[in-house]
UniProtKB/TrEMBL annotation:
Alphabetized Pfam families for the sequence: GT87
Region (Disordered) location: 402-424
Highest classification ranks of the organism: Bacteria, Bacillati, Actinomycetota, Actinomycetes, Streptosporangiales
Positions of transmembrane segments: 33-51, 83-101, 107-128, 149-173, 179-203, 215-234, 279-302, 345-363, 375-393
Membrane topology, from the record: Multi-pass membrane protein
Family stated for the protein in its record: Belongs to the glycosyltransferase 87 family.
Name of this protein: Uncharacterized protein DUF2029
Organism field: Actinocorallia herbida
A single Gene Ontology CC term: plasma membrane
Amino acid sequence: MTDPRLVAARLALVALGSLLCLAAARRGWRPPVWTALAVGLGLRVVMLALVQDVEPYDLVNDFHRAGENILAHRDPILHTRPLGWNYTPLYAFVLAPAVWVEQSLGVPWLVVGRIAPIAFDLGVMLLVGRLASPGTSALRRFQYGCLPLPIMVSAVHGQMEPLCLLFAVGAFVVVRRPWLAGALLGLAVSVKSWPALFLPALLLGLPGARERIRAAAAAAAVPAVLLLTLPLTAGTPVAAFPHIARTLLGYSPSVGTWGWPAVLLEVRPAEPTPWEDPFYLAVRKVGTLLTLAAVVAALWLWRRARATDTALAVSSAFQAVTASHGVQYLLWPTPFAVADPPRRAAWLFTATGLYTAVGYLVLPSLTPETWAVWGPWYPVASVPVVLVVLWTLPWGRRARQAEGEGPVPEAHPVPAGARGAADR
């Protein structure tokens, strides 16, 4: 069992980040970029130092093995455990230098494996400032740097999401340049498939059909080129391409760890194994259909909104109904919600931050006996978080404000001392 004082220190750091976010909004802080970077980096480094006994399974096993495979010029999908690596090798090329540093210089993997996600997350912080309106860019940049959710996803879990968002948010920042915006979103999809959710919002943020065709073509071309060059970059046999394609297209996280499926599978646990249980498979199928319907509905409702609000709505709709979820997915809409906060954004950040803190910092510290009592309730506790996600959507911003205003992604002006932009 983890020392309770260490757990308390981690939670105190989460509380500190939350208080800094709130104080920045109340007092209208606009720290210069280097100050914001120093604070953001400091919070993440301290968290990194406090979680060296926390060992996320995918970081310790799957990510490490993917880096080893690239160093040995082996395809990561073909040389991993079942369901261990289900992505193109792009992020594995980020992991390979980290594995080399660990093996050559003796730096612990739980340190070096989290350095790149922290660096990428700081890059997202800078882009949030670019995405926000000019009068609030410094405030929003600082708030993202202090927000507990991205701190934990990068410095505790060491996940890929920060790199996905670095490319995806960058695409919205340069949306007026369709080729570049599309290429950046294509890179995001090449890390993990979920940033494809942002493509319709990005296309709606462009002024005409020609620009949309260019962006879509660039977004499709980048993953295609990366896949076709796998024999050169990752040593993938050409004969393995059908297996690679099935693996990439067929990946889905565990069912029953989030939202309504968690409630159903708590009432009726899967037997004998989740992958063979008919009830489990039915929940998964229904969840896929519901997710598709929710995403389409969000696109329709926010089709006339600013591109950033559409991206926020679509990714939040996915969160609300999906049957397959990981805690790190809560980060997807966060940069857009910080750059141009809906009226109830503080509730969103509080709910997602608390849920993430319990999952990353509290549950790993429990004894097996305590886990047996409280662990199964954690997925069920996601239901109120889902409700908060829906409640805090920018329902009043489903259309642009001025007639003729272009669908550009810049945020609405917000008074410096406001907690968040009001729904309009």
